[in-house]
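Provenance

Sequences were taken from public entries as deposited. Structures were produced by running a predictor on each sequence independently, with no templates supplied. The record for Insulinase family protein from Flagellimonas algicola is shown for reference.
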Amino acid sequence: MKQHFVLALFLFTAGNLMVAQQVSFEEYDLDNGLHVILHQDNSAPVVTTAVMYHVGSKDEDPEKTGFAHFFEHLLFEGTKNIERGEWDKIVASNGGSGNANTFLDRTYYYETFPSNSLETGLWLESERLMHPIIGQIGVDTQKEVVQEERRLRVDNSPYGAFFEVLLKNLYTKHPYRWGVIGSLDHLASATLEDFKNFNKTFYVPNNAVLVVAGDFETAKTKQMISDYFGPIPRGAEIQRNQVVEDPIVNTKKATYHDPNIQIPAILLAYRTPGQAERDAYVIDMISTYLSDGESSKLYKKLVDEKKIALQIFSVPVDAEDYSCYVVGGLPVGDNSIQDIKNEIDAEILKIQSELISEKDYQKLQNKFENNFVNANSSISGIANSLAENYMLRDNTNLINTEIEIYRSITREEIMEVAKKYLKVNQRVELAYLPEQKDAN
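Predicted structure for Insulinase family protein:
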């Protein structure tokens, strides 16, 4: 009787949790092409204002890389109505916090405020879009900031360069082939006019989505959005080239020597479909099953049981045109990166040739259910999900329905997708090694 009661209580709680997960929203377009998404939640007096621009490193000139990431920094420099150095002060003085990030396909700016400062957030983001100052002082300042960031995160960070090296080998035609942070030489040689042209091309309302999520009054908020963003002129339509990569038909082997490490690593990278495609969701499940965290098959086998690896890791990279699945590890003791590779291949072969167990399948489903709930447990998380689903997956309502895709994926489908994409001859093998010492 007690067991039945506990089970019923669990099911009731889980059911309520999933109902609570439903995110209501409204979306519409301004005349200038700005897409607006509103999610009202008056349960707490906080609100997030966010703008995502459909511009990332893939939109750069191959001879002028790093611009999208550079603008992530540059557009905090100030506007016609906000003096240099005042942006963060305005946010902090209104009890808020904010940040920005850039990736292959998009750039994202956001602030979270007490709800009585919503208008401040809308004003700030409209200023960034309408009145940015692209001046030499700001450009020179941010060049130094980006140089220091690269030194910290890539040049002087253990294993910091692996992502750039993998991209360069995974793609030969597509602009994903260079790193998001880009080339410091390109930034150093760029003119002020180059930066102004980039801003004029991509930072326009018809290339952006504005999200307001949290505690607000809908009618009042719509009027403020109209007042602040409506007067911003529409930009020219952006022409994007659809670059198609040739398939990898023979294993590509690469070696990189990192002066910041003592333990070598092996990384195996597979090019996979764009993030909106169903197979990308299946790859996500495969990645989680094989290599995501200490409960994954590879971690338990190589780290816990056989003790041949110090660490096992995966880097599933979701992107608009192509994604990639990266799995790798660090050997321990006298074991080698070849030993790690052999064990990874054995587990991949197993998932290609036989169905995962029903128990493991249910564990996967439970994990994705949990991830689905947690991803949108905060107002800022909801704002990010709404923006990405609209811009990069062309379906805002995935915030409510994406879990159904994972639920519908079968064990048979997992096996077939593993066969299709995780082939030895379709991957990049990167031996990431300590820097060779001079024998003299």
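The first helix runs from residue 2 to 20.
The first strand starts at residue 26 and ends at 29.
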